[in-house]
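User:
Care to share a sequence and structure tokens?

Assistant:
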Amino acid sequence: MANAETAGAPAGGGAEAVRVREFWQRLGLPGLVDVHTHFMPARVMSKVWAYFDAVGPSGGPDWPITYRHEEAERLALIREFGVRAFTSMIYPHKPGMAEWLNGWSADFAGRVPDCLHTSTFYPEPSAAAYTASAVDSGARIFKSHVQVGDYDPADPLLDPVWGLLAEAGVPVVVHCGSGPAPGRFTGPRRVAEVLARHPRLRLIVAHMGMPEYADFLALAERHEGVHLDTTMAFTDFAEKLMPFPPELRRRLAELRERVLFGSDFPNIPYGYPHALDVLTRLDQDEDWLRAVCHDNAVRLFGLGPRPATESAAPAPR
């Protein structure tokens, strides 16, 4: 991407929006569905950005936030890209935080109707109660961040949570792979334990399970409720650190109905079009691209067709 996009200059809109819209229009789609985007309370988002700002000076790869804008501008950008539905991926890192985040996210979804009502949880005695409350209030997707939360997804405190979500059929995006850095409880083994107890769970493994790609593909092959999102996978940034093995591409084709597009917007160190462009390098056909970038999520979340007046909106110039 252009240097300005990763050097703190305003990014998005204009030429970027044209590229994104041309991508989905060429496929005959009415837009995109992005299952992995972050909208958070301002002070939480600031702390997340501060964490990524420190990655490079701490010895990791430089991680400039391409879309470091105020909330209203980020919403305008993602809509200009033609993203018809997205999420507010929130996640706690300590007890007592999840319920507060859920309240914020419910309010956000109420004022931003194109955002899927997102909730989260943490292994604590109150988790089952506030998860049930979130489901009753209309939560359509949950986020579990095993690495940041530093918790065991198979913790007995979460057993009623997983059971409730399996029964309700509400999908959970779970960051359980060991990238970008391993945690005490990351990796496929503990997620497999959860699935053994709750085989009806609808899990969306974030980042394709990076870097344990093969193991998480195998989980999806064994469990029909397991999906994977493309967030950051296949990009030039990720390929330098944790490349996706080319020999696994055949299995991507076989799982076409359970791969979902995710971007990690706004916390990405490159432009949004790149997250789409890299999908065209995977030796998959256009039916696969249509399924991944739109149709699979429409089916999973029951989004229905987009009104013709919206889908026909011209690309910005």
User: Anything to note?
Assistant: The longest helix spans residues 286-301. The beta strands are 32-33, 83-87, 115-116, 118-120, 141-145, 172-175, 203-205, 226-229, 259-260. The longest strand covers residues 83-87. Residues 1-10, 307-317 have pLDDT under 50 and may be disordered.
